[in-house]
Prior knowledge:
CATH topology: Alpha-D-Glucose-1,6-Bisphosphate, Chain A, domain 4
Helix content: 25-40%
Number of helices: 7
GO molecular function: phosphatidylinositol binding; phosphatidylinositol transfer activity
Family: Belongs to the PtdIns transfer protein family. PI transfer class IIB subfamily.
Region (Disordered): 250-297
Number of strands: 8
InterPro entries: PI_transfer, PI_transfer_N, START-like_dom_sf
Low-confidence stretches: 274-297
Radius of gyration: 22 Å
Strand order of the largest sheet: 2-3-4-5-6-8-1-7
CATH architecture: 2-Layer Sandwich
Protein name: Cytoplasmic phosphatidylinositol transfer protein 1
Shape: globular
Distance between the termini: 29 Å
Oligomer: single chain
Number of domains: 1
Amino acid sequence: MVLTKEYRICMPMTVEEYRIGQLYMIARHSFEQSSNGEGVEVVANEQINDEKNGNGQFTEKRIHLSSHLPYWIQSLIPKIFYVTEKAWNYYPYTITEYTCSFIPKFSISIQTRYEDNNGSTENCLDLTPEELEGREVDFLDIAFDEIKPHHYKESEDPKLFKSEKSGRGPLVEGWRDNQKPIMCCYKVVHAKFEVWGLQTKVEDYVQAAIREILLLGHRQAFTWMDEWFNMTLEDVRAYEREMQAKTNMKVKTALEEAEKNQDGQDSKKSSQPPTPKSPKSPLGTPSSESKSWFSWS
């Protein structure tokens, strides 16, 4: 059974303001989090048109994140590993999909809609009766939900931040009931991993990771407000292009270095005599020289 959660994240701004803040936050966050060959590499970013949803923006990204995974997942995948993200942004409605060529039975799909309210719409994304029955709603509070200690920064704490340009903040207990303006991101997340014995563990891990990312990203979008508040859509798109170019170069350079190091290790291994194997092994167990249980494609 696919694990389905609906996250509702309120923000002290309007839907139109959030559009700018979100684009700024993603571009800056991607650059800051990219290091040692890990991070977000932008493959495509182009305008699109859809009969139902109108004009929009399509992006395709490669998210390099091997060392950010728990060890029990790292043991199953190549060292140079990425997840593909494809997003169709018909703001205020977006569709995002995550897949991995090494793990074909793994996928995440996210539908998002943004509304100028405090999370009060019961079925914002028009889920079916069956989907509603299996849905779990999770309200995220950017000010008072705890984040992991290594992610905490005083300058990014909504309980302490006050915007000089908008006058908003700090956020206090009950802010979602009293704050004006306020908007809500409604995100329905379907996580699927159809591998017997690991399905529940992986799907639970994915949902927990998504929750942490959403919480951190939205805290940053608010506390970085004075950086983007006066930007137009054209301004933030130009900033996005600039940061994407810098991020791609940062990730590419580190990946090339990682591949060189990997090739050097493989050459050293191949020069050593192979370890004798038991004759007629019925299991065909891979030798220790195998890079991965999955083929590189």
